[in-house]
Structure formats: C-alpha cells, structure tokens
Amino acid sequence: MARPRQALLTRERIVEAASALIDAEGLDALSMRRLATDLGVQGPSLYNHFATKAEIIDAVADAVVLKVDLSVFDGREWPDALREWALSYRAVLAEHPNIVPVLAQGPGRRPAGLAMAEAVYGALVEAGWSYARATHIGALMRYLVTGSALGSFALGFDVDPQLYERYPHLHHAPLLAEHHEAVDEGAFELGLDLLINGLRARQEMGTR
C-alpha cells in the first residue's frame, strides 16, 4: 500500500503554523524545532524557506498586517479614512495579541507594514499636512492603536472589593473585569475621536 503523500512544505504553510502557535502560546513558544514538529517535518527543511526564526516572526507579523483594511483610504476624507483604518487595525490586533509587541516596533523591512505606512502617510500628505506633521500623526496613530492592543486597562485591576476600601474613588474597580471589552473599546474610540477631531480643528485653523 502506498504511503500517504505529505503536504508540500511552503512559506505559506510555515507562516500559518507559526501564526497559530504564536496566537495560542505566545512568541516565546516559537522555535524552529517546535515549528518543525507541528508541521511534521525535519527541522532543516524550514531553512529552505527561512534563514532564521526572526524571519518567520517578521513574516507572521506581515501576514497579520495584510488583514488590515487599507481600502478605506480610497476616495474618503482623511478624518473618516484614518478612523476606519484605526478601527480595522485594532480589530485585527485583537485577534492576534501576541504579535503586537513585534508590530509596535514599526514596519522595519516588512512589505505589508511598509505598504500600510505608505497608505496612511500618503493620505495625510495628500490632504495637505506637511511632511513633518504627517510623520507626527502617523506616529501618534501607531502609539494609540498598538498601545491599546498591548493589554487591557480594565483587566489590570483586581476584583477583590476589600482591596479598594482605602481607595474610595476606585470602589467600582472590581466591576471593570466583567465589562473589560466595553471599557477598553470605549476608551480607544474616545481617544481616537478626540485625536482626529483635534487634528481636524488644527487643520481648519490653518495649522498643518
């Protein structure tokens, strides 16, 4: 009886397996040996596609960025486009929180990351912002989106009511964990709206 044929090892399969492992167990769980085991191949075969583990992590990060909706920059006013892009980016990061520390460092040489930076920066420059100010806005947006995705504000508080007897203004803190999604999403959208509205006001005053 013929042995079943093993699925062809490709860059795409490696990235998918690495992404699944990182999502499930975190960046520290990823190793060439573990990845080869998960794929059912010998470790050296991975090096036919990636020279290092760092290259695989970069590829995983770029695959995540590819899920962000950049079509919002086609034909929309920059405030609406920037807001919709930020919401899409944060939603994607919420699905892959363990890769956020890599993305928070910037695009490096990753094609999808650079394409996203080009889309954001290009939209701002075309809207009349100076090169310097567009750079500042791009940095602000990265801080806001990736920073909000690095961890939950609401889950940072203990649920023991007795802990807050000495802190009367924090008496609602034990409830935050139960409503952490609403709290965190509400805080992000508030910050996003304040940022964009503030930028719009500066532009209307002629400060670019």
Automatic annotation (TrEMBL):
Location of the HTH tetR-type domain: 8-68
Record Pfam families: TetR_C_1, TetR_N
Top-rank lineage group of the source organism: Bacteria
GO MF assignments: DNA-binding transcription factor activity; transcription cis-regulatory region binding
InterPro entries to which the protein is assigned, alphabetical: DNA-bd_HTH_TetR-type_CS, Homeodomain-like_sf, HTH-type_TetR-like_transc_reg, HTH_TetR, Repressor_TetR_C, Tet_transcr_reg_TetR, Tet_transcr_reg_TetR-rel_C_sf
DNA-binding annotation, residue ranges on this chain: 31-50
Entries under SUPFAM superfamilies matching the protein: Homeodomain-like (SSF46689), Tetracyclin repressor-like, C-terminal domain (SSF48498)
Entry's transmembrane regions: none
GO biological process: negative regulation of DNA-templated transcription; response to antibiotic
Record keywords: DNA-binding, Repressor, Transcription, Transcription regulation
Protein name: DNA-binding transcriptional regulator, AcrR family
Species in which this protein is naturally found: Paractinoplanes atraurantiacus
